Protein 1
Amino acid sequence: MDFSFTQEQEMLRNTTRGFVDKEIMPFIEEWDRTGKSDPAIYGKLADLGLMGVCIPEAYGGSGMDYNSLAIVCEELERGDTAFRTAVSVHTGLNSLTILQWGTEEQKQRYLIPQAKGEKVGAFGLTEPSAGSDVAAMKSTAVMQGDHYLLNGQKTWISLCDVADHFIVFAYTGNQTEKHSAISAFIVERTWPGFSSKAIKGKHGIRAGNTGELFFEDVKVPKENLLGKEGEGFKIAMSALDNGRFTVAAGAVGQIMACLEASVSYCRQRQTFGKEIGRHQLVQQMIANMEAGFQMSRLLVYRAGELKNQGKRNTRETSLAKWQACDFAYKAADDAFQIHGAYGYSDEYPVSRYLRNSKAPVIYEGTREIHTIMQAEYALGYKEDKTLSHTLPAWEQQNSASE
Ligand SMILES: Cc1cc2nc3c(=O)[nH]c(=O)nc-3n(C[C@H](O)[C@H](O)[C@H](O)COP(=O)(O)OP(=O)(O)OC[C@H]3O[C@@H](n4cnc5c(N)ncnc54)[C@H](O)[C@@H]3O)c2cc1C
């Protein structure tokens, strides 16, 4: 067991932190207030290799390990959840899924431009009547000659107006067959019948773009089926193993930001003749943040190490996601509390942290879904089987790219 970061990982952290301090921090209050950010930000992330950090060099990425992706997510969310969410859906949910399940042709056509950051990817699973209960989806894809005809609607999709490519899930078989009748497709924004619309008035992640996707008789070439017909549910769940990992890592960054803001405020604000950091009840909140930060980080890097070794990590990733997001939400609430009335204004970032830290407790498996998963693993009711396509171990990726 080696708990130290490599020199490359330290450099990556410094680079990402420098980027966040220069390109995000000075503008984030305004972006959060107006609900808009600079679209050029994705190009700038790409220039630093951050849109495909753990994608093999052979497929246009930076070829770093999976924990390097965690480092990027930690540092981005220290700036704002919106930009970590973008990397989560682009790299975690989309690009890694194509790496794991895609044909060589799909990797050449979609993965390479995404890893280079020339194109942006997103992930459309949720529907108005299907969130936790994925099989309740209504979208359909019916084979007609050399293409599928895709119809349906997705909602709460991150980067809905920004992404060029989407992994979309729809029934190709009888809906009574539930999970085994769902398939996955790669869909391009420019195809006729595709449209998107942002959701307005979000509680948090306001600098990010989230909304609906509509498919009206969209012709999807049959080469764009990802995996086999009927493998869509398994593909969605394996995509979530990677997405949840990035969400958990981002939550570590959110706690880091809460600690930074709180420690700074504790050292400057005085009550009853001393810094508020000297009051034991305030210290308890700081201590809880520190504990949440350290525990979450260990869970995240353990899941990342399993990914590096090419081992199944659904259980460990779920635990990391559940715990880190709960800790982050509590840390944001405490950071707000430590700031007293000043937390209630936008003079300090903590109200944004509290608003932002709620969605990660909901998306990519709600707190309740992860609680049930962990209980079922512990009780022996749930067990993971080997998938037909596994995420390549990091060493294998490297040798494949040499
Ligand atoms: C900002 C944001 C971004 C998102 N981005 C994406 C995206 O990019 N792509 C995408 O596909 N989706 C995305 N989502 C959607 C997200 O994944 C879903 O919201 C999530 O899966 C929960 O589904 P739901 O909201 O329909 O809640 P429901 O599934 O309707 O759940 C409602 C409540 O019931 C509880 N519940 C449900 N079932 C059970 C059960 N069996 N036992 C106990 N409790 C239960 C839930 O925990 C929750 O508290 C995003 C959501 C948000 C808020």
Protein 2
Amino acid sequence: MPTSEKVKSKLLVSIPPKIHGTIIDLGSGWGNMAIRLAKQFPQCHVIGYETSPVPYYFSKIWLFFDKIPNLQFRKKNFFSVNLKDSSLIYTYLYPGAMKILYNKFEEELIPGTIVVSNTFAVPQWDPVQVLEVKDIYNTRIYMYVKSSSNIEALQAKSEEDVNGK
Ligand SMILES: C[S@@+](CC[C@H](N)C(=O)[O-])C[C@H]1O[C@@H](n2cnc3c(N)ncnc32)[C@H](O)[C@@H]1O
């Protein structure tokens, strides 16, 4: 199911307007969210990853007619993509995917990366903001900023181990 218009409007105004770098839509579907992100943030490179052929080819055909130079769709399983170079990740997936993504985010995202998840929270992460949309599902949008706290905790632990504490 694509992100609804109400959800799109609410979350797009919550993203820092001066964001730069690469924005990734993990599972870009028919492409409409990635298209909005690319148009709203022309200074960013937007990439949508999608495995399902019909929505993927639809989004490619859309892009053929609606030229958006900073947008690319790639037919690829996003679990096999390294996310280290992203500034912002957008997801609208399912709980099982969020569990796997938690580990991937911990390993690959650099501190400061913004993660915006429609409906499904990232397990074990504390959102910096939760937006509530007044629609029939009372949709929640979870906004996170990858912190360095876990990395620092791991470093502190390995120093303790080295020092034999
Ligand atoms: C709920 S739709 C969201 C589409 C779009 N992001 C939006 O917000 O409108 C989720 C999409 O993720 C795709 N997807 C799920 N797992 C994927 C994976 N591992 N790699 C690439 N795409 C995936 C599905 O095929 C589906 O099109």
